[in-house]
Every structure is written in C-alpha cells, then in structure tokens.
Design brief:
Distance between the termini: 36 Å
Strand content: 25-35%
CATH topology of one domain: OB fold (Dihydrolipoamide Acetyltransferase, E2P)
Order of helices and strands: EEEEEHHHHHEEEEHEEEEEEEEEEEHE
Mean pLDDT: 81
CATH class of one domain: Mainly Beta
Largest sheet: 8 strands, mixed
Number of helices: 7
Structural class: alpha+beta
Shape: globular
Bound molecules: zinc ion
Oligomer: single chain
Length: 360
C-alpha cells in the first residue's frame, strides 16, 4: 500500500479543488475532480485536510472518490444518521470510527441512568445527539470526559487502544455510579484462559486473562486466512520442548493452549495487523458473517455487526467504519462526516482491522 501524505486545500470552486501537498517541503498544485459533487445536495461542500495516496513530483492531478473527503454537512444522509466532525488537523478518525462502530451496540443496550456527570453519561448523550440531530456531532466532549488525556493531543491513535480504554472507563462508571455494575462486563468482557497440561502426568495449570478486545495474531506465511482459522490457531494445543515438571519431578513436554472461559454478548476482535517492528500486514482476511465459537461450557454463534478499517501505514493513516443492519442486511459506511450505503462486497476489504460480532 502507498504511503499517505497530507494535502492542504488552497482553493476550491464548484467542481474542482486545488490541493497543495506538503511532501518534503515541495509544493504540488493539484486539481481534484469530484465526479459526483454535482449530484449531491450541496454543490460546494467544504472539504478539510485529509490523507490521500502518495504523489510524486510529476503528479499533476489525482482523482479520488468523494468518500475519502470530509464534508462539513452530510450530503447523502438518507437514513438521517449524521456523521462525526473531524476538523482540520485534529486526527479524530480513530475515535469517530470507534464510536460509529459501537453506537448501534449501545442503542440496543438497556443502559443505566446516570445522575452524575461521567464518561458513560457523555457517551450516551453523544449517541442520542447522533440519532436526533441532523448536524455533525463532535467527539471532543467525550474525549474530555476520559480520565486519560492521551487521546486529546491532536495525533492519530490506535482505534483498538481507544476502544479498550473507553470500555474500561465505561465499566468503572457503572461500578461507581449505577445500580447495574455488570452491564459493560456482561456485554463485552471476554475471559480467555492460558492453560498448560502435562503430556505424561496429570499436571494442569490455568491462568485467566480478562479482555475487552480479542487480539488475533496474523500469520504472514499463510496465504488464505479467515477469522475461523485464526481462532482455531489461538485455541490449538501446542507441545512445548521438554521442561522440568514440578508435580511429577521429571522432564517432559507440556501442551499449551487457550480456552474461552466466558464469551460475551458482543465480541470485539482486533486483527494483529500492526507488528512491533512498525510494519503493517495488509493481507485480506476472510470475515465470515457467522462465527461459531466454543467456550468451555457453551457453544456460541455470533453475527458480524461492524468493521473498523484502517487505511495507510502504522505511521499514518485513516480510520473508517462499516456497520451492518443484521435484519435488513444493509451496510452503511461511516467516514467521519460522510455517511453512505455500500454493498456487502465493499464492506469486507484488506483494511479490516477491528471486528464487532453480536451473539445470536
Ligand atoms: Zn509432569
């Protein structure tokens, strides 16, 4: 995938936008054709700085879909669900895409009432405003209500880390301020255990690992992978090299494996695209509509509900979200302020990063 660079709008007319890149201090004047602006309700939408494919010095013009652009007004919002603001230089797409993926989940939840001002109250207010208002909403009040200030620095952040911190604090709010302290826990908490079993003796050990998002490592050497094969990989029993076993006092190998002790109503999966060396794995991962996952004592069936996508590299990029109405099978794409219907084929792409499944 090409690197992304920032382009600044220097002029705009009805059907052309002149963009100046800031790549290595060289300036390129670019003409951008917006092919379907004429069909939109607002012939001169306001576009702000966004990330676009890398350009070389000979590039005179690029044509990019309007979907990649931010509008200050929703131009094709047929379902009256406005998007979220991402003003110039604020890099809020990590939070916007996360909220847009979680919004349908929280709309279906029986949320507690909060008398106190807390993050959960701010979050519910934002969700309500997103539904009731025809204006774009801002995630800034929500970010301000978080106990961590790390997401307010105007920099790009990892959407999975944001979701993790958000759920953690929503959970803390329910414990502190509501009569139903387990609502976030019972909805989202995964309990995975790391197990060890002796191959020649009855030695067993188990350590529980509570998670808000299930990280699934990708295997770069296997061409065709899907979420089912990644789950099988996670749960398979792997023999260790022989080591000293305390209960039986002899050297032998152990079987190491994971077990789902508890699976939640809403399962959030993070595909391990970002490696510790800074590389990003861009391979296409199969994402089934339905997942059947066995926990220690239950069989669970999940339906795909949303995908947060990451475009670009680990250094810079852009997040969007696609959500599926399970009843109508209609997919919607949320790109900051731009909300549009898409096909199922467009929903599953190389950029899929965070998957949200709901239990049947
Ligand atoms: Zn042993």
């Amino acid at each position: 995938m090409q690197d992304l660079i920032k382009l600044k709008i220097s002029d705009q007319t009805n059907n052309e936008i002149h963009l100046t890149s800031e790549d290595n201090a060289t300036q390129h004047l670019l003409k951008l054709k917006i092919s379907d602006v004429e069909n939109s309700m607002h012939p001169t939408p306001n576009y702000s700085e966004k990330q676009y494919p890398a350009l070389n010095s000979s590039t005179q013009s690029i044509e990019i879909p309007t979907l990649s652009l931010q509008t200050s007004h929703v131009t094709q919002n047929t379902n009256h669900l406005p998007g979220l603001l991402n003003p110039f230089g604020r890099n809020l797409c990590f939070a916007n895409s996360s909220i847009q993926a979680l919004r349908p989940i929280f709309c279906a939840l029986d949320n507690p009432d909060f008398a106190e001002h807390c993050l959960y109250a701010s979050f519910l207010q934002l969700v309500q405003d997103m539904i009731q208002s025809t204006q774009l909403q801002s995630v800034n009040p929500l970010l301000s209500a978080m106990t961590t200030s790390q997401f307010q620095d105007g920099q790009q952040h990892d959407a999975a880390e944001f979701i993790y911190k958000l759920l953690e604090q929503l959970h803390e709010d329910t414990v502190m301020y509501s009569q139903r302290p387990d609502i976030i826990d019972s909805t989202f908490r995964i309990m995975l255990s790391d197990n060890e079993k002796g191959v020649v003796c009855s030695h067993r050990s188990r350590e529980d690992r509570p998670l808000w998002c299930l990280p699934l490592p990708l295997n770069t050497t296997v061409k065709q992978q899907d979420v089912n094969s990644l789950l099988q990989n996670l749960l398979k029993k792997v023999p260790t090299i022989p080591k000293s076993c305390v209960p039986c006092q002899i050297q032998h190998s152990m079987l190491e494996y994971c077990v789902f002790e508890v699976l939640p109503r809403v399962l959030i999966i993070q595909l391990g695209r970002f490696l510790s060396n800074g590389d990003k794995i861009n391979m296409l991962i199969g994402i089934p509509d339905t997942l059947k996952i066995q926990a220690r004592t239950t069989n669970n069936t999940y339906q795909l509900k949303a995908i947060v996508k990451h475009y670009g590299t680990s250094r810079q990029g852009h997040y969007t979200t696609v959500t599926k109405d399970i009843q109508t099978q209609v997919w919607t794409e949320w790109n900051d302020g731009y909300v549009t219907r898409i096909s199922a084929k467009e929903a599953i792409t190389h950029e899929a990063y965070i998957l949200i499944y709901t239990k049947e």
